């Protein structure tokens, strides 16, 4: 005669219980096979695990488990006498060791808590290396560490710190760290070094702002093909980025600029539009082919990790963007530039931006060190001042970031105009003599070259 056994246990650890009962099922099946020379149908794939509060029952999908004789026992798993003894012993052992599962559950909770603690400690540790605490409170960053806003803010803070420390090392000076807030939402951290040994003016800014887009700013975006649908005429946005312009004293050390940014807009239906933008470009006073190759090749290697078309496409975009139309010349020898990057996916786009941001030190500092001790004449310094005048013209007339900043309420003018040099020169009808290095530079600016 078959013995009916009901399985139940007062434990809240379902995963542990499930694992244990699966083992029990295998034990029962083995006993059944020994006694009956065949598998019990109720232990075949139709098996289910039913949970009712703290109790768990081991049952089949149907209302009965069939014995080889064809008899049915409704609501129970029918086992042979040998299997019943095995099952009973297993259940007794399980009940006697209920505390084991509670301890396992507790250990799991502790493990997860420790993992969370480690992640929070990682963010805290990263923040210690910044030039200033991040604009967003560290606890908020920890609570939303998976969001792109957090990932991007940490990246731009790291980029600022890495570049500032590299510049301080080569110059010997110290950046003034200026933290500011925007009453409409957010703020920024401006790091500026003036009248150093190497750099006349070096600025590396971070901004993290949010609020509502002005109509003028929205108009600029719509002119680039953005379809923006606000609620009651309002478009909530958040924007963040790192931007830097370095003006060296020595005319043989080029000016460098980079900017990497992330923009997010919430539309009427609650959906979000997002995109990345940025780039790095070089503005030398004199042509140095070796410098140009190093700079462009470093950028190309970063781009090629993500897509073979990125460098050639973004190099051309850079040449088009940094073009002083009223002069008919580019601002410098270019680099890469892109905007409105919202494909192939958010993580992929972010990883590309991260690769680009991490080139700012290796693409520029070797050039700085190479020319640290180059001598220069008064004439060469004058030519540098004239070229700086062109730099100012582009930034004030064409630069999209400057225009957006000036059109955004609460923007910090000092940080926006940080890109301008301490000194510049405008000479009436200036034209370099043919055959000079100045004329060679102007030829390159009027006819952009492929450097890689």
TrEMBL record:
Gene3D superfamilies: Coproporphyrinogen III oxidase, aerobic (3.40.1500.10). One of its GO terms (cellular component) is cytoplasm. It is an enzyme of class 1 (oxidoreductase). It comes from the Eukaryota. The keyword Membrane applies. PANTHER family: COPROPORPHYRINOGEN III OXIDASE, MITOCHONDRIAL, OXYGEN-DEPENDENT COPROPORPHYRINOGEN-III OXIDASE, MITOCHONDRIAL. This is Oxygen-dependent coproporphyrinogen-III oxidase, mitochondrial. It comes from Oryzias melastigma.
């Amino acid at each position: 005669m078959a013995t009916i056994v009901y399985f139940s246990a007062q434990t809240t650890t379902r995963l542990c219980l499930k694992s244990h009962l699966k083992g029990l099922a295998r034990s029962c099946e083995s006993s059944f096979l020994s006694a009956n020379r065949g598998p019990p149908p109720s232990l075949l794939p139709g098996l289910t695990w039913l949970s009712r509060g703290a109790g768990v029952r081991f049952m089949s999908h149907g209302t009965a488990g069939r014995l080889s004789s064809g008899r049915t026992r409704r609501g129970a798993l029918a086992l042979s006498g040998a299997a019943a003894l095995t099952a009973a012993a297993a259940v007794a052992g399980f009940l006697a060791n209920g505390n084991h599962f509670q301890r396992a559950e507790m250990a799991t909770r502790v493990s997860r808590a420790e993992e969370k603690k480690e992640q929070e400690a990682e963010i805290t540790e990263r923040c210690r290396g910044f030039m200033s605490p991040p604009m967003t409170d560290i606890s908020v960053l920890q609570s939303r560490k998976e969001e792109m806003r957090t990932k991007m803010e940490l990246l731009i803070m790291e980029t600022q710190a890495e570049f500032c420390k590299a510049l301080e090392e080569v110059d010997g000076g110290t950046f003034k760290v200026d933290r500011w807030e925007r009453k409409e939402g957010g703020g920024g951290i401006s790091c500026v070094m003036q009248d150093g040994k190497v750099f006349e003016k070096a600025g590396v800014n971070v901004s993290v702002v949010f609020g509502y887009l002005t109509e003028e700013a929205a108009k600029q975006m719509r002119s680039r093909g953005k379809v923006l649908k606000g609620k009651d005429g309002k478009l909530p946005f958040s924007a963040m980025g790192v931007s830097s312009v370095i003006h060296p004293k020595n005319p043989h050390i080029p000016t460098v600029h980079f900017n990497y940014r992330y923009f997010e807009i919430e539309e009427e239906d609650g959906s979000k539009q997002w995109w990345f933008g940025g780039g790095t470009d070089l503005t030398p006073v004199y042509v140095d082919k070796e410098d140009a190759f190093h700079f462009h090749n470093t950028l190309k290697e970063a781009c090629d990790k993500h897509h073979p078309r990125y460098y050639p496409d973004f190099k051309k975009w850079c040449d088009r963007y940094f073009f002083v139309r009223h002069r008919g010349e580019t601002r410098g020898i270019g680099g890469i530039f892109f905007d409105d990057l919202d494909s192939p996916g958010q993580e992929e786009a972010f990883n590309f931006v991260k690769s680009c941001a991490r080139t700012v030190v290796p693409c520029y500092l070797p050039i700085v060190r190479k020319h640290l001790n180059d001598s220069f004449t008064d004439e060469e310094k004058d030519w540098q001042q004239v070229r700086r005048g062109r730099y100012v013209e582009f930034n004030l007339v064409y630069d999209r970031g400057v225009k957006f900043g000036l059109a955004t309420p609460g923007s910090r003018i000092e940080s926006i105009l940080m890109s301008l040099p301490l000194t510049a020169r405008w000479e009436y009808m200036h034209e370099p003599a043919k055959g000079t290095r100045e004329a060679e530079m102007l030829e390159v600016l009027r006819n952009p070259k492929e450097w890689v």
